[in-house]
Write a structure and sequence with these properties.
This is VOC domain-containing protein. The chain is mostly beta strands. The protein has a single domain (3-104), classed as Roll (2,3-Dihydroxybiphenyl 1,2-Dioxygenase, domain 1), CATH 3.10.180. The chain has 2 helices and 9 strands; from the N terminus they run ββββαβαββββ. It has helices at 52-56, 67-71; strands spanning 4-11, 20-22, 27-29, 39-44, 59-63, 75-76, 81-84, 87-94, 97-104. Strands 1, 2, 3, 4, 5, 6, 7, 8 and 9 form a 9-stranded mixed β-sheet that branches. A hairpin with a 4-residue loop joins strand 2 and strand 3 (27-29). The chain is globular, with a radius of gyration of 13 Å. The two termini are 19 Å apart. The relative contact order is 0.23. The model has no long low-confidence stretch (mean pLDDT 96).
C-alpha cells in the first residue's frame, strides 16, 4: 500500500473564509490545495455524527488507491463516505489519533 501525503486537517470552532461544505460529514472546510503547507481547517455542525476524535483532534490525510486495503485491520472511525463524485473518505484510529484516507477515482 502506498500512502501519498495529502494534507493536515485542523478542527476549529472559529469562522474562516470557507471554501466548501461537506454534507455527508456536516462540516465546513478550507481548501488545503490553496494553502502553502496543505493545511485544511474544518468546522463541524453541532449535529454532525462524525467521531469525536475526528471533530476535536488534528488529522493527517493520505491519498490511497484503495480505501478497503487502507482500512484493513484498522479501527474505523465512522462510515466511509463520499464528499464528491469519485471521492471516498475514511478515518481510522492510529495510536490515539485520527488518520484520513482519500481515494479518488476519475
Amino acid at each position: 500500500m502506498d500512502y501519498k501525503f495529502s494534507h493536515i486537517g485542523i478542527p476549529t470552532t472559529e469562522d474562516k473564509n470557507w471554501d466548501g461544505y461537506c454534507e455527508p460529514g456536516k462540516f465546513k472546510y478550507t481548501d488545503f490545495a490553496k494553502d502553502e503547507y496543505n493545511v485544511e481547517y474544518v468546522k463541524f455542525d453541532k449535529d454532525s455524527e462524525a467521531h469525536e476524535m475526528v471533530k476535536t483532534m488534528p488529522h493527517v490525510s493520505y491519498f490511497v488507491d484503495s480505501i478497503e486495503e487502507a482500512i484493513e485491520g484498522k479501527e474505523l472511525l465512522g462510515a466511509i463516505f463520499s464528499p464528491a463524485e469519485g471521492v471516498r473518505v475514511a478515518y481510522v484510529e492510529h495510536k490515539g489519533s485520527p488518520v484520513e484516507f482519500l481515494e479518488i477515482k476519475s
